[in-house]
Amino acid sequence: MTAQSVQTPAPGASSAISRRRSSPLWRALWKHRIDYLLISPFFIIFGIFHGYPLVWSLWLSFQKWQGVGEPRWFGWGNYERLLNSDRIWNAFGNSLIFLVVLLPIIVGLTLILSVILNSQFVKGRHVFRVLFFLPYITSAVIVAIVFQLLLQDNFGWINGILEAIGLPRVGWLTQAWPARIAVMMMVFWSVAGYNILIMLGGLQGIPLELYDAASVDGANTLQKFLFVTVPMMRGVILFVGITSTIGLLNLFAQPWLLFSSTQGLGPDQSVATLNTIQYSTAFQSSRYGEATALGFIIAVLVITASAIQLWVTRKADQ
After folding, report:
1. How far are the Cα atoms of 75, 205, 224 from residue 227, in angstroms, in the given order?
2. Partner of 152 at 20 to 30 A CA spacing, among 87, 203, 213, 318?
3. In 3D, which of 313, 128, 133 has the Cα closest to residue 230?
4. Average pLDDT of 211-232?
5. At what angle do helices 176-203 and 86-118 cross, to 10 degrees?
6. Cα Rg of the chain, angstroms
7. Where are the alpha helices (DSSP H) in the chain?
8. What's the CA gap between 274 and 255, in Å, rounded?
């Protein structure tokens, strides 16, 4: 007869296992194990294509790497080079100009246009809605070609109109501030349709009884807009403001395509943005660590600007 040794877990280990299995969190996870299994593909795909690249990019931002060979630890060197670069501060200034000028125009003008397009007194409003939305789904390359034809110094249609009415020609593509205005016009023309669509959805959710009550109290059209429409649209306005802020601080396609001959810099680097500098740093200078560090700086700016908008809105609600 052979003795068989039976290994029993230590009292401390068995009690720890039993406590873990009896904990509310463990019981909830086990109870919904099928639910978590069904949604696990999303988290797996997110981890592979978003989570891991994000962590790897953060690690790369502290490295010096040109795309080949082994990355070398550089510490905060990439961030120091960026913060001490006049080129980066110039691009940040341009991005700030685009944000400060374009954000109120995008939010305010699209709200006004959506109110007009939502009015029952506008004939053919459905046609106008489609026309306003078409630029949003049009290729950015085609839009850039059209704007180049419109804004050319010698043969552009806009300069031709200005000359016909006795005004001097404007160097839209060769002078600093006109170049910025050209980019702003292209950006607004490209994004207005999407924001109008969002605003229209919010307007159609406002109860008509509020406008009827305002009419009974003697409110005119402007008062209805200021004291009924704007307060009821505050959440939609905040959404449009935050998404527009994200887009403006990540501005790339419009200046790059409109001024492709200068690699998105424009005359005197007047339209260079943080994203155009990031692209040229990575894919033309092969400084991938520095470009990744710039990406995280842009992310911090976007988060900060969005947080400020949320804070201001909550303060206004109080």
Report:
1. 53, 16, 5
2. 87
3. 313
4. 92
5. 40
6. 28
7. 11-22, 24-31, 33-46, 52-60, 77-83, 86-118, 125-137, 140-151, 157-164, 176-203, 208-216, 221-224, 230-232, 234-249, 253-258, 274-283, 288-317
8. 11
pTM of the model: 0.84
The closest of 244, 261, 131, 117 to 184, measured between CA atoms, is 244
> Residue 97's CB: how many other CB atoms inside 10 A?
18
CA separation for the pair 282, 43 (Å, rounded): 29
Sequence-ordered list of residues with C-beta below 8 angstroms from that of 143, at least 6 positions apart, any chain = 135, 186, 189, 190, 257
Domains of the chain: 79-317 (1.10.3720.10)
Amino acid, res. 59: W
Mean of pLDDT values over 241-269: 93
Render pLDDT for 6-48 as a digit per residue (tens, 0 to 9).
455 555 555 555 555 567 888 888 888 898 899 999 999 999 9
Tokens coding 28: 């909830």
Retrieve residue 311's tokens.
Answer: 């804070």
Residue whose entry in the numeric block shows the structure tokens 């060769």: 174
Give one word for 263, left, alpha or beta, with left for phi > 0 and alpha for psi -120 to 50: left
